[in-house]
Amino acid sequence: MPDPDALPSYLDPRHLGSWGVYLQQVERVTPYLGGLSRWAETLRRPKRALIVDVPIALDDGTIAHFEGYRVQHNTSRGPGKGGVRFHRDVTLSEVMALAAWMSVKNAAVKLPFGGAKGGVRVDPRGLSRAELERLTRRYASEIAILIGPTKDIPAPDVNTDEQVMAWMMDTYSMHEGATVTGVVTGKPIPVGGSLGRRDATGRGVFVVAAAAAARIGIALPGAAIAIQGFGNVGGGAARLFAAAGCRVVAVQDHGGTVHREAGIDVAALAAHVAAAGSVRGFPGATAIDDPARFWSVPCDILVPAALERQIGAANAGAIRARMIVEGANGPTTPEADDILRDRDVLVVPDVIANAGGVTVSYFEWVQDFSSFFWTEDEINARLARILTDAFDAIWQVATERRITLRTAAFVVACTRILQARELRGLYP
Ligand code: NAD
Question: Edge-to-edge strand order for the sheet containing 63-74?
């Protein structure tokens, strides 16, 4: 073991947080990589990381500075691909972890992309729409030296939406002097967006959950579902679970937690959130005041779909679900993974469970390049096939090697990444 003080900060095993979780996951997969393990260090180092200053004029005339990032973790298999997050807690190391999970995810579902991610350390709820547009445009122009339709293609993530993507696409296009729709995905339909993209991550969570449920004998009609996060991913998944006859028994977001044993009316909850900004105060369910109690709600399927590291050593033992389907990126720590494995709670990892969004982003990118657009039925059918094939392949590896689904997904994905690395060889 080298002297930790001699390592670059991002390789320091004492560095906690999401990047530390990712490094531990890589540690766990390395024994299964055979001869490719000599390239494994590639996985522990981001290829490029850019920190940018994002100054904007606020509406009252004062100047505010925000810190932004774009990280390309690995591009061995294709251009960087991954979302942009606007959140007050975003850090460089969090973006590094999210970029790395994108490398693994894209390889796990065999999309021809590497992994990248971006973020700005800002609470967008405190900005006016005009300020948000200025922030987005300045950030996009600061990272324009890295992104491009064949280099690195951003997409939405927490607190960024179709409008933000349209502003990013426009800003990049103004620099280029030509409309370049393929530089970002998750755009509105009139500017090169894809049908089915808005719901794609939630739909993918549902498709993968259904495949996993069938393997362990959970019948979806009547199954109890608990969901943390009711945004793009959690809200979309909730709708599809309800449509399949499941009972969505508990929902938690940043503002509160609501519970109803007989099943929450998901459409009514969505209308409440659209009006009130949170599930708090929803009249069709009972409020749970202590947010920690959300984790011990009895259910068949628990879907964390908010932020990283929500399930750790402190609450993994309290979970009363038969399986966890990770809508969020990195919601479960390695310590919690071990506790859940020992308690026989199946964990379907993020890199497959939430890959629906990037899969339809891939379709959007292909459609933008060919300027030929597919029907929603074609998109949903192709999405379901890619995800169920990927899930089946990972299930088989997990069964054969007697390892968790997460380690199996990492084995499949990291093998693909490092095979590409080895085939390309080292430059110069
Ligand atoms: P979003 O902004 O649309 O929604 C986030 C949700 O999480 C909101 O309901 C918010 O209230 C809730 N939340 C925030 N902080 C919380 C807290 N402390 N406790 C409980 N709930 C909290 O974001 P999203 O796009 O739905 O992303 C959610 C997760 O899914 C993230 O981990 C993201 O990286 C991941 N993800 C998103 C996509 C995508 O296409 N949007 C794709 C793959 C993975």
Answer: 48-57, 63-74, 115-121, 80-87, 152-156
